[in-house]
Structures are given as C-alpha cells and as structure tokens.
Design brief:
The chain is mostly helical. It contains 17 helices and no strands. It folds into 2 domains: 63 residues, no CATH class; 346 residues, Na+/H+ antiporter like fold, CATH 1.20.1530.20. Helix 1 packs across helix 2. The relative contact order is 0.16.
Length: 420
C-alpha cells in the first residue's frame, strides 16, 4: 500500500501543477510541472520548517524514500520508450540510419572521454581534484541524450524533419551504449577485481545491446502476429501492456538491455503491426491509449525531477562548477558531432545551422540523474549528483524552451513540422 499512497500523492500533485502551468505559466507541460516542483522545493527549504513543518517533513520523507533509479530505469522508462517508439516512422529512421547509428555509438563514447578529460583538468581551478575515473563516470552518465525528454520536447518544438529524426533516433538508441559503458566504468571505480579486457567489454555490450535488440524483435513480431488474429482494440491494448511489463521481466532474467528491447518492440508494432495487424479503429484506440500513458508518466517524471532538488542540500556550493560543466557538456556535444561527421560520415551537406540545432537539441534528463543515483555511496557521489542536476536543469529548461527558436533562427529555409 505504501507504493500506492506514494503514486497517489504524485498523481494529485502532477495534476495540480499541470493545471497551474496551463492556467498561469503556459509553458510546455512537462517543463512547467518541473519548474513549479522546483519552486516548491526551494520554498520548502527556505520557509517550510517555519510555516508548514509537518507538511514539509512529509514531503522530505516522500522524496527521500522514493527510489528514483529503480522506478525510472526499472519501470517508467520501459513504458515511455515503448510509447515514444510506437509513433516513430521507421522509414524516417532508415533515411538517417548511418548518422543515427554513428551518433548513438561513436559520439556517446567520444563525448564521455572529452567531458572526463576537460572536467579532470578544469575542476582543480575550483579547488576540487576529482579522480579521473569519477570524471569518466560523469562523462558516461551525462553523454547520452535522454529519449524521454527529447521525444517530449520535440513534440512541441517545431524542428525541421531531418534534424528531428537524427536527434530523436539518436536518443532512442544511445541508452544501450551509455548504460553498458557506465556499468564498465562503475566496475572499474568500485571493483578492484574487475578485469576490463576488450573481450569482457565486447561481451558485455553484445549481451546487453544485441540481446535487447533481438528480444525486442521477438516481442514485436509475437505481439503483431497475435493482434492480427483477433483485431480487437481492447485485447490489443492488453497485449501491448503485457509486452512492456512481461518484456521487462524477461530482460531482467536474461540480463539484456530493457530500453533497447522496448524501443525495438515499439518500432516493430508501430510500423509492421499497424500496417498488417490492425484496423483503423484499433490503431486509433491503441495510439490514444499510449499517448495518454506517455503524458501521465512524463508528468510524474518531471514532477519528481523537480522535487529531486530536496535531496541536494549543498547544491549552491557547486553552482560555479555546475556552470562550467554545462559549457563542457555543450562543447563536448559539438565535438562529438563534428568529429564523426568529418571522419566517419564524411558529409559536408550539414550546414552550420543544422549542427547548432543538433548540439542544442541534445537534451539531458532523468536517465542521467537515475544513473548517478545508482552509484554506491562514496565521497564523490554527492558532488557528481549536484553537477549532474545543474546540467540537466539547464538542458531541460533552457535548451528545451529555446530549441525551437534556435531552429527557426538558424534554419529559416527549412520547413518545420510537428513531431510525430
């Protein structure tokens, strides 16, 4: 019942904050909810003990006992990735497949090492000497663009189709690489017996990423074939729910990437399944159901990211280092796009405006916070959590609110269409 009460409170708060945002702030829904939650967090810190001590203690207890890493990475992420992938057109991804594959793999690794190197050499100027292995941990957890945030924001920011496809496609697939890399670096930082040979790392990646893709294909095909035989929208919704929830259980048992499995299953059902297994009525109901699930879970996720501020009592001590980390992450994003573009892709068709939009549209979010929270307790965990939160806050609020304007300014000649 404890979990039920927690989610009940979060739903009530999310609906209330969503109303306040729509009524007064008029910001994009998820960003507005997060900003209001952050404002409440700051108010609770400053005056809560004096004016509302009981309510403040209950709020602190609620957030403190909520395992954000487990709930996001183990449950919510699967629903959100499946819902997002369900509405993505595979034909669009195919047109940009080499760019998406490169940015979801090579660029993530490049970005992690660039960020770690810059942070390692710059942090001492602020009186903090961070061991390189923890700088690399920060680089791995902050490098992937967040699929939940990116897909949600691109729905409302009118970004040109080709750029939107690259950013969204990269965000959908880069989690597998980032999570594996994070797991390897975390083992190096915490387990002295771990032997990081090329074979060990390759096998870990193959097991996680390859296994996740294979399982996603199997789940997507099985669900599509099953729905084809009945074509009933109520049963079809139940089948897709079972794919997400049962699929997560399978990934846990088989130790493969749950995010990649959900992305592939969603893409398969959203393209092959819709074309061959569903009537127009079933497509309509299924699409609306998962769109609603997407909106509700996004509201809860951004609400909780705003309340995460309550868990960072000394974040003000790292504001300067956090600001530097923002610049490091943005410049690393630029280099991680330019280097593969000039060497691997070898395309000069990208305008400067396109590159600006891709850099600014590489938004970080809850996945980065969840990864840093999954670290075991150490003297560097709080520091990394604080600068991660600062980078994520800037990314979601500043970049998220302005990416459409950046696209309009730098790409005035390209038509802009809403995200699918």
């Amino acid at each position: 019942m404890e979990l039920y009460y927690t989610f009940s409170i979060l739903i009530v708060l999310a609906s209330f904050f969503a109303y306040l945002n729509l009524r007064f702030l008029k910001l994009p829904g998820t960003i507005g909810i997060m900003i209001i939650a952050m404002f409440v967090s700051v108010a609770a810190r400053l005056v809560g003990e004096s004016f509302f001590p009981i309510l403040t203690h209950k709020l602190f207890d609620l957030i403190g006992t909520f395992d954000f890493n487990e709930v996001l990475m183990g449950a919510m992420l699967n629903f959100l990735l499946f819902a997002g992938a369900l509405h993505v057109n595979v034909s669009d991804l195919k047109e940009q497949k080499f760019a998406i594959l490169t940015y979801a793999t090579v660029s993530v690794v490049l970005s992690a090492f660039i960020i770690s190197g810059l942070l390692y050499y710059i942090a001492p100027y602020f009186g903090i000497e961070i061991p390189y292995i923890f700088c690399l941990l920060f680089g791995t957890l902050i490098s992937p663009t967040d699929p939940i945030v990116v897909l949600g924001i691109l729905k409302e920011a009118r970004v040109p189709k080709s750029i939107e496809t690259k950013i969204a496609g990269e965000a959908l697939f880069n989690d597998g690489v980032a999570v594996v890399m994070f797991a390897v670096v975390l083992k190096l930082a915490t387990d002295p017996t771990f032997n990081p040979t090329f074979g060990n790392i390759s096998w870990l990646f193959l097991e996680e990423a390859g296994g996740g893709i294979l399982l996603g294909l199997v789940l997507g095909y099985f669900a599509s074939r099953t729905m084809q035989k009945i074509d009933d929208y109520k049963v079809s919704v139940l089948i897709t729910l079972s794919i997400v929830m049962g699929g997560f259980l399978l990934t846990t048992v088989t130790h493969v990437s749950s995010p990649l499995a959900m992305v592939i299953a969603g893409l398969f059902i959203g393209n092959y399944g819709k074309k061959h297994a569903m009537s127009a009525t079933t497509q309509d109901y299924l699409g609306k159901f998962w769109e609603l699930i997407d909106e509700i879970l996004n509201a809860i996720l951004f609400l909780f990211m705003g309340f995460e501020l309550l868990l960072l009592p000394n974040i003000q001590d790292q504001l300067f280092l956090g600001a530097v980390a923002i610049l490091i992450v943005l410049n690393s994003r630029l280099l991680s796009i330019l280097i593969p573009l000039r060497s691997i892709l070898r395309k000069n068709t990208y305008s400067k405006g396109s590159i600006y939009v891709m850099v600014w549209g590489g938004i970080r979010g809850g996945v980065s916070i969840a990864l840093v929270l999954s670290m075991p307790v150490s003297e560097w965990k709080d520091l990394l959590l604080e600068i991660t939160y600062i980078v994520v806050f800037f990314s979601i609020v500043v970049q998220g609110l302005t990416v459409g304007k950046v696209a309009k300014k730098h790409l005035p000649q390209e038509p802009s269409t809403p995200a699918h």
